[in-house]
Structures are given as C-alpha cells and as structure tokens.
Amino acid sequence: MLYALFFLTNFCADMITQSLAPRKPGPPSETLQIGSVALPNRVFLAPMSGVTDLAFRRIATKQGAGLVVTEMVASQLLVDERREEVRRLEKGCERPFVVQLAGREAKWMAEGARIAVERGADIVDINMGCPAKQVTRGLSGSALMRDLDHALSLIDAVVSAVDVPVTLKMRMGWDHDSLNAPELAFRAEQSGVQMITVHGRTRCQFFKGTADWKFIARVKDAVSVPVIVNGDLRSMDDIYAALRQSGADGAMVGRGCYGRPWFPGAAALALKNGATAVKTPPPEKQKAIVLEHYEAMLEHYDRDFGVRIARKHLGWYVERSAHTIEDAKYWRARLCREENPNQIRQALCEFYDQSTEVAA
Ligand SMILES: Cc1cc2nc3c(=O)[nH]c(=O)nc-3n(C[C@H](O)[C@H](O)[C@H](O)COP(=O)(O)O)c2cc1C
Q: Which of 54, 132, 332, 347 has the maximal Cβ count within 10 Å?
C-alpha cells in the first residue's frame, strides 16, 4: 500500500518534470558512506566470477578502486564448505572486504552471511543480477526479480543475520515487461539494505544491447540510500554520462577493467580532478603491476592452476597494450602456450620493455 502510494505520487511527478528538469548533478563529494563504512571514492570494481578473484582485487585496490567485491559465492555451497566457495571467500588487502552471496533460500543466505562475517566481511552484498541459466534455473540471481516477496524474504534473512551493512546488486528487471528494479530497491531499503547497484539491462538481455543508464534514475528516485550505476562503462565519457543520466552516487566498472585493473582508481582520480580521460600508467609501471598480478595468481591458486587462470588476464593485458593486432596475436600466443612461470615472467618483461622503447 505504502509502496503503491509512493509510486503513484512519483509517477505523476515524473510525468510533469521528466523533460523539463535536468538530472541531478553527479557526485557531490569524493567519498561515499555505506552505513558505518566509509569509502575513499565512488568508482568501484564490479564482481565478476572467474575474473575478480583475490589476486585481481588486490591489484585494483592498490591502484585506488573505491570498492571491490568478491566473486559471487553460492550460499548453500559455502555452508557445505565447498573448496571453490571457501577460496572465493579469502580476504585480501581490501578494506572494506565485501562478500557477494547468491542463493534462493533464506536459511542458506543467512548462514552464508554469518560465515562471511566470521571470515572478515565488512559488507555483505546480495546478488539479484546474475543472468546465467545455471543460476536462474535454481531460482537465484536475477530470477529473484520475478518474485519480489521471495526476494525480500532473503534480504530480511541476511539483514537480520549480520550486524554489517547489507547491499544489493540487481538488473532493471527480468525483461522489459517487468522493469521492477525501482520497486525492489524501495522495498529493499525498507528492509535495511544500505546501497543498491543496478546493471542497466534486463535479465533477458544478458549482455546484449546497451546499458540504460537513464532508467537507473528511477531507482535513484525511489530510495535514499546510495545508488550505483553499472553497465558498459569503459571511458571517462561513459562515466560522466552515466552519472549524469542516472543521478547515481557512484559508478561500478566490470569488463572495462579487463587488462587494466588500474581503471577504477584512475577514473576516481579523473572524476576528482574533472579530467576528461584517465591517466594510463606508463609501460614500466604496467610491467610492475602485471608482474605483481601474476605472482598473486600463482600464490592464490596452486602453481599449475594459477598458470592456466593467468592466461586470460595476460591475453587482455597484451591486447590493451600491443601496438598492432599482429603484435597482440604474437604475444598472446607466446604467453598463453608457455607453461613455465619463469619463461612467462621473462616474456612479460620483454613485452613491456619493447613498449617502453617504442614510447620513448
Ligand atoms: C565474466 C563475468 C562474470 C560476472 N560475475 C558476476 C558475479 O559474480 N556477481 C555479479 O553480481 N555480477 C557478475 N557479473 C556482472 C558484472 O558485475 C556487471 O554487472 C556486468 O558485467 C555489467 O557491467 P560491465 O558492462 O561494466 O561489465 C559478471 C560479469 C561478467 C562479464
């Protein structure tokens, strides 16, 4: 009832002001508060399973990301102490340590949240955005947006289970006939959720089309907790446009960080200075970052698995920095075929030394 009234009022107000008023300006200050937790800036690294493991988060944090989030942890598997879920819960140097939980049953979500906090989580994030069929078939991730009462029961369970702030990540809705993110956000805030991130696509879009940053303004209007815009942010132009169109309090970058874990930190700095582009680290500094990332991956996984996991990252790094497509192909093949970490370290040094010579 309260919600219906809220939306009726908002809808009428929207109709009157939509084309007249400019969107609220971007972030009023650099920092952002999530409940009791203060963040240094407003550009975050998105959680990405298979990408933002402890090694990647460590580098992104050191390069200045305002917030990083673990890969999605399946709550029931965590309670069962499955190896992969336990590994995903390993804490690195990040402060705050944000653990993202997925699941479909309140009791597992609550128990998973308690375990996350025992292992050091400063914030628990709930995943209601994952579109993958193996997740939505189990009625987790974005499938929860099809049944808001059930979604709210999970949120209530997590908020009651832990003392740390609880945040929520979602899409715009299941499909364009059910764009219920504003309603979910409103109800989540009533239940105690303290920040909401919206990927500006529906579940049925998966990753197709383009993210609708303007839609996120409707979520921003529905709540008073911070709202974060996500989807297709690859440049400062994108970040400025997304913040302007959505009125969001911060921006979260996912695939735009492939091969450049420094991007959120560099973007936060650019935002602070009103710069139109991020400063890319020079090749010498990139070499140091990539070598550190490589060592962190070998340390986090056992050596052979680490060598395999590292391949996609090394491929992205060379794609970003190579001077020609041919050059990228050569270095990707060389780095990804090699099994011996010493040879890989050597090849990485050669790759970046060559780039330094070209840059000089
Ligand atoms: C490989 C991959 C894995 C992802 N894993 C997760 C995840 O574990 N949890 C989550 O909330 N979102 C996940 N996402 C979604 C991203 O967090 C983000 O919402 C989406 O990629 C849109 O942002 P972008 O256009 O900046 O990449 C994943 C996306 C990708 C590409």
A: 54
